[in-house]
Amino acid sequence: AESLIVIAPHGIQLETCRGFPSMVLQRTRRFVPASALDTVIINEALWRWNVRYYLALLSTSDQGKPTLHVAFEVGIPAYACK
After folding, report:
1. Domain for residue 82, yes or no?
2. Domain with 29 in it
3. How far is the C-alpha of 72 from the C-alpha of 42, rounded, in Å?
4. Is residue 79 included in any domain, yes or no?
5. How far apart are CA 74 and CA 23, in angstroms?
6. What DSSP state is assigned to residue 79?
7. What is d(CA 20, CA 81) in angstroms, rounded to the nearest whole number?
8. How far, CA to CA in Å, does 12 sit from each of 19, 20, 45, 49, 54?
9. What pLDDT is recorded for position 32?
10. Domain count along the chain
């Protein structure tokens, strides 16, 4: 399952939980500070006969390197992170 949490003055946290509904095997959290956040991208793409929607965050590091953080990479959430 994946989640996106907006912490208004501070930034955005992306969280991914992998495993089973009763047992989380791996939890990954990425935080994008508001000061580094450049834009939020909502994109649609064609894949076979479907339209897929993507949500991504574009940020810039301290060295000026752009980074693209894709939200909801896993797909449809099967359960919520606990």
Report:
1. no
2. 2-71
3. 12
4. no
5. 17
6. S
7. 10
8. 23, 25, 24, 32, 16
9. 93
10. 1
Residue 50 maps to a domain: yes
**Cα 28–18–82 angle (5° rounding)?**
75
Binned average pLDDT, 10 residues per bin, the chain of 82 residues: 91 90 89 93 85 89 90 61 50
Answer yes or no: is 15 within a domain: yes
Give the pLDDT score at 78. Answer: 45
Q: What residue type is assigned to position 68 of the chain?
A: L
Distance, in Å, from the CA atom of 34 to the CA atom of 71, rounded to the nearest integer, reads: 16
- Beta bridge partners, 52, equal 45
> Closest by alpha carbon to 60, among 34, 27, 24?
34
* Residues in Cβ contact with 24 at an 8 Å cutoff, skipping those fewer than 6 apart: 17, 18, 81, 82
Residue type, 57: L
Residue type, 26: Q
Cα 61 to Cα 67: distance, rounded to the nearest angstrom: 7
